[in-house]
Here is the input.
Amino acid sequence: MTFEPTARPRRLRTDGVRPLVRETTLSANDLIAPIFVDETTDKRVPIDSMPGHDRVPVEQAVDRVKEITETGVSAIMVFGIPDTKDARGTGAYAEDGVVQRAMRAISQETDVYLIGDVCLCEYTDHGHCGVVEPHAHNDPTLTVKNDETLELLAKTAVSQAAAGADMIAPSSMTDGMVGAIRAGLDEAGFSHIPVMSYAAKYESAFYGPFRDAADGAPSFGDRRHYQMDPANAREALREVQIDVEEGADVLMVKPALPYLDIVRDLRTEFDQPIAAYNVSGEYAMLHAAGEKGWLDVEETAYESLLSIKRAGADLILTYFTEQLADRL
Ligand code: PBG
Here is the structure.
């Protein structure tokens, strides 16, 4: 055998040069950590399917935020578990709703950048992300009433901004949600508050642990009438284009790892910042394998987030901040 390699890329892989030629880096500034605030409990309740995460009572929301900011991460997203649910998700836009109470405390007592998820599924008794026909229960072919839902989403966004939210993130996949929320915020004097749209949110089985955590699983049917079909990529570009036209400031893809092609497509096609949501199922998988001794959670988590950035995301929502604290 006389073949000699004509190119030697290994030259750039020595310990000395690797950091110099590294194309992607991950820092605490890239990350947003979700927290769960629960009105139905007065003590922290561990979330079984998301080891290391608890539902915390409103009174402990500030402590929970401080645990996160200690890792160097300075942005959080708040999810609420209300004590009562009804057909119109009233708790989502109540002045004394669980998220509004938590946000008031967090914004008064910390400097964290506070992002509000805007959706109705945690607050509706049927668990869908908007208003449904009264007779829709048990009929999985009936679906969310789009335009009636818009007004409630706008009210939710305004009530969160009034409670101290720095950014609003609508996740319901209602047509027109960004435009309705932008108009609502502007009319209420919150034209300075940016909107991060869950623009390309897929109907994904990777949300399973979150639905346990936030108690937001639909009681009938599923979400395929409003969330996107995992089979579609071009449709994501249309969805995102609409959100841009309606005034979205940041564009999100969700989930992250199974949808890195979508992250890359958006990076190529749009100039806005791109966010990716490394969802509950992506977190739970690594932890489950880690518990069996099959994977190293910290290493695989770091590699996951680095890959999401490499695909083109500027910011990442992730439950891994605390596992990665030492490396950020
Ligand atoms: C609310 C919402 C969901 C998630 C974020 N916001 C659940 C869903 O659409 O079912 C999922 C987040 C995760 O899995 O980590 N609509």
Q: What stands out?
A: The two ends are 47 Å apart (CA to CA). The chain has a mean pLDDT of 95. The chain has one domain: 23-325.
